[in-house]
Amino acid sequence: MSDITLGPPPPRSHARLWIATLLLAVYTAFVLLVTMWPNPSQLDFGGIADRVLRVLHRFGVPERFDFSALEFTANIGMFVPLGFLLGLALPRRGWWVAAILLPGFAGFIEVTQGLALESRFSTLSDVAANTIGGYLGLLLAMTMRALIYKRDQTVIEREIWERNAAYVRAREELRRRHEPEPPDLATQILEPGFWTGPRGEAPTLKLPMTR
């Protein structure tokens, strides 16, 4: 058996970490800009919400789905990308860190709005909506990473099996090439000494008989 020499390990890919961290920083800045803007009327949230509600009601959404319900849903949706990107940026077993950071960040926003921004007010429902959205994004990220990890493991196991199978086939082929094939019965009959046994007697061949 030939010796196997291992060289230096291949470098790890940090593309996921860098891309997720960059997008997380950009989106966090966007969330802070939207939630910490001193004068919300300048962002025209009310006009946008009215147009969205009219479109939803036109497509059959019940009238009881009002501005408060839309705001709660929007707060959920705003934190879904945040939880998703945080789940990608953290290590695979660091999901519990995101589970702490997401409600903490939502609470920080609401406390800051209530204490430092006169034109805004903080509510526990906003914290709950943001936390729900962040957890949904985190769950999506963890599920996607688990599926990718399982796929990679299957690909690696299949590659190892195919290499082992190719090695076994090559070894069997090499063994067949170096071992002479036994001669058939006709060739053995014509060989000298076939009809003379060790005691000078002709060997006896047992022929298979079927009843």
Instruction: Report the major sheet.
Output: none
Low-confidence stretches: none
**SSE ordering:** HHHHHH
User: Which percent range describes the beta-strand content?
Assistant: under 5%
What oligomerization state is this entry in?
Answer: single chain
Q: Which secondary-structure class do the elements indicate?
A: mainly alpha
Question: Could you please describe the fold and organization of this structure?
Answer:
The chain crosses the membrane at residues 17-37, 72-90, 95-115, 127-148. Residues 25-144 form the VanZ-like domain. InterPro entries: VanZ-like. This protein has helices at residues 15-36, 45-58, 67-89, 95-116, 124-178, 185-190. By secondary structure, it is an all-alpha fold. It has a domain at 15-143. Helix 1 (15-36) runs antiparallel to helix 3 (67-89), helix 3 packs parallel to helix 5 and helix 4 runs antiparallel to helix 5. The longest helix is centred in the C-terminal third of the chain and has 55 residues, at 124-178.
